[in-house]
Amino acid sequence: MTLAANFEDTFGHPPAAIAAVPGRVNLIGEHTDYNGGAVLPAAIERRVQIALRPNDGNVIAIKSTRFDDRVKRPVGDPKRQSWTDYAVGALWKAEALGWHTGGTDLFIDSDVPDGAGVSSSAALITAILRAAADLAMVSVDPVAIAQHARAVENDYIGMPCGIMDQMAVGLLSPGSALALDTSDLRYDVIDIPADWTFAVIHSGIRRELADGRYKARFEECQQTSDALGTDALCLLDADQMEALSALPANLQKRARYVTSEHARTLEATTAMRKGDRATFARLMNESHRSYAVDFEASTPEIDELIADAVKTGAHGARLTGGGFGGCIVALLESDDAAEWIDDFIARHPGTWQV
């Protein structure tokens, strides 16, 4: 059935608004978005679709194709550590913006996996905000939608994320990448070269950004920024770089990672524009090494997957997303991609293509 038909079958009336938003994979530039640096995410083929309609009550009724039960929560309900928090938080924000008020019937149809580092939460929040704005007949710039979606994660969910995910899912379509400067939100949409394929492979290790490790890295970066007197850890000057040596070893390592990752991302963006696959691949490999050693956000299992990916024909590979699990991304030649992916997954039971 179509999304609209599923909605009507569930709630007994047609939806008033529908929206669809893709997931994203970050090609390079991890944890730089909340440190004033550059990022380079790309849209994936998977997407979140939502349909909604105001109801006459004070209840948010949520049905997802991913779960059996229909969930009901009161309007304004605080977070509960539930998958429905992202939907309730998005509607909370829509009401604060004057786009929607009262109860809502909401149907979610998503093939974007959660806990995989491909922005399922940002896609869901963005889709709901976009549908709410349409319903209110409000024209909203995609950048403003991204800022509101980030506010849901920061203020309602309590996740101190940057704005990369929300910008990527709101501005991209598959086949394109977003060169984003998070210090001022200047961006450029780049076509990925036709002979490049980025394979996104789930490691089989599920991770939750809310489990504390992402927040711990965020706080270490904030501590380092505070100690150096900067709001942009990615953009340290010579004096600040010299002052790093007086900080604890873990903070030195975090700064070393984000400053080098920012530089790699700028170089990788230039390489993509030129179609320079060799340089882009080298930067992916360097990015993963620094992510594992300096940011300490990888795992031994994922490091083994990365090593095997490069050994067996990937030009470059790295862990993508917030770290500690989720997906790897590998750069392949398009003509060889399908066979390489099948062989890789066959060698590593428990992995699967996103």
Question: Describe it for me?
Answer:
This protein is α+β, with helices and mostly antiparallel strands and 354 residues long. It folds into 2 domains: 3-191, 2-Layer Sandwich (Ribosomal Protein S5, domain 2); 196-353, 2-Layer Sandwich (Alpha-Beta Plaits). Helix content is 42%, strand content 22%. Strands 1, 2, 3, 4, 5, 6 and 7 form a 7-stranded mixed sheet that branches. It has a 4-stranded antiparallel sheet with strand order 9-10-8-11. A hairpin with a 4-residue loop joins β6 and β7 (186-191). It is globular and about 60 Å long.
Write the layout of secondary structure elements.
Elements (H helix, E strand, L loop, with lengths): L2 H9 L5 E12 L9 E17 L4 E6 L6 E4 L10 H12 L7 E7 L9 H16 L6 H16 L6 H8 L4 E6 L4 E6 L4 E7 L10 H16 L9 H6 L5 H26 L2 H17 L6 H12 L4 E4 L7 E7 L3 H11 L4 E2 L1
Parallel strand pairs: 3-5
Antiparallel strand pairs: 1-2, 2-5, 2-6, 3-4, 6-7, 8-10, 8-11, 9-10
